[in-house]
Structure formats: structure tokens, C-alpha cells
Amino acid sequence: MIPPTYYLLLAAVVFSIGVFGILTRRNALIFLMAVELMLNAANINLIAFSQFYGNLTGQTFALFTMALAAAEVAVGIGIILVLFRNFTGVDVTEAATMRW
Amino acid sequence: MAATTYELAAFGLFAAVTVGASLGVVLVRDVWHSALLLGIALLSVAIHFVMLRAEFVAAMQILVYVGGVLILISFAVMLVRRGSDDPSLSTSPQLKLGSHLWRGLGAVALFAVLAVVSLRAALGAATGFPSGASITASIGVAMFALSGAGVPSETFLVAFEIIDVVLVAALVAAVMLARRESGGRLAAIGREVDDS
Questions:
Q1: pTM for the model
Q2: For residue B88, how far is the Cα from the chain centroid?
Q3: Is B136 on the interface with A (CB under 8 A)?
Q4: Complex confidence, ipTM
Q5: Which residues of B touch A5 (CB under 8 A)?
Q6: Which among B126, B21, B13, B49 has a CA at the least distance from the CA of A3?
Q7: Contacts of the segment B183-189: beta carbons below 8 A, 24+ positions apart
């Protein structure tokens, strides 16, 4: 059994990469992918602890996270397509008409 | 139960694949390459799940993420692309040393905090799954609050039903977003709006 600390560190790396992507990129599609990376990091933690403590709550919760991620992507793609139609591009810094 | 050398080697290899592909997602120029690298990252996470004895979750990871989410993202990439030399596809990384340096340092600081917390956490004794119990069957038992689980878990019947409603609401919302409001006719998704 691999120590869960290793998986915690792996998940921390993946989550930080997702945060970095959201902070630096301007393409809305990259935002969506970075959010997927962060959700996957959370899933790695849930499943690592599920195996460590011999309790299936983590695995079941990871399945719910996946369902929510699918819903989030469906709405996110819709929003990106509306963004593309209204601003003819997916650059999130261009959509500033509601900025005050 | 200590980790064998093979386990550690497999973990190290696929951890490297996961981290490398994740870095590629946020660093490569072409958004289509980002999507493909995201697929590699998701598949390697599925391999981690198999190594953690979560075979059912790994199968769902491949079916839902690689088969569903990634296909949706690929569709969106193709719909918003206007040609191979489209400047909006390569909006970055023009990694600017001013603002991007601070943001990158913020991400690194977040990782440092997470790593310190992970390394200092007192995790207690490993229990492991009971031998001989079917994990997939126990997930089904936990999800529908039945009795007869081989592996201990909480029950999730209410959460299951709520996720059901959330998925329907999300799909209806996606359809609502994708159609055009004016005139009541359906929009040709991805075409330029000329009467906006």
C-alpha cells in the first residue's frame, strides 16, 4: 500500500497547476479544463483516503463529484458558446461590458 | 503493509505522467493540444484509481470524463475555432514577467501550504479494505442505502436523488444557453451573430 501522503502531494501539485491555469490563461476553454484538473485532484484525495481507512464513503463521493463535473461542463460549454457568439471570441478579458 | 518497489515505481511513473500532462494543459499554446493533454491526465488519474482499488470509479472516470466531458470540450474547441491561425486560440501563454510572476508564485505558495499540511498531518493507522468483500457491490449498497454491505460506508440515497435533479437542471440550462433568444428560433451554434 502506497502511503496516502504521496497521493496528497500529487493531488496538491495537480490542484496548484489548475489554480495556476485559471490565474494566468485568458481562454475560457482552458478555464474549464483547469477546473476539471482541480476536481480530479480532489477525487484523488477522496479515493486515497477511502482505501487508507477501508471505508467506501470516499469512493461514493468521488462518483458524485464526477456527476457534478459533468453537469458543470454542460453548463460551462453553453456559457462559452454564448460568450463566443456575443464577443466573437473566447477571451475572458474581452467580455468586460458589465465591468464598472 | 509496506509498499513494494514495483508499486512505488508504478506510482512514480504515473504521477510523472499526471503532473506532466496537467502542466501541459495550462502551458501549451494550442487549445486543442490542451484538450488532448487533459485526456492523458484524466486517463492517468484513472490508473491511480485502479492502483487504489477503486476499479469501478476508474471505469466511471474513463466513461464520464474521457468519454463525455472531454468529447464535449473537443466539440467546443472545434466550434469556437475559426481557422488554424486564429489568434484567439493562442491568447497565451504570453507569460509576462510582471503580473504572471506573482500569480505563478501564488500557485506555488498554495502548493507549499498544501504540502506542509499533508506532510505534517497525523493520519493514524491504515485499515485497508476487508479481504474478500466486493467493493463495487458495496458502492451500490451505499448509494441506495440498502443493507448487506461488505465494506463500511455511509449511505447516499438523498444525495443520489439530488444529483439526479441537478443533472436534469444542468442539461436544460445548457439547452437554454445554446439557443438564441431573439425571434424564438433555434440558433446555429458557433455562427457569428449579425443581428445582435
A1: 0.86
A2: 24
A3: no
A4: 0.92
A5: 118-119, 121, 123
A6: B126
A7: B187/A85, B189/A81, B189/B79
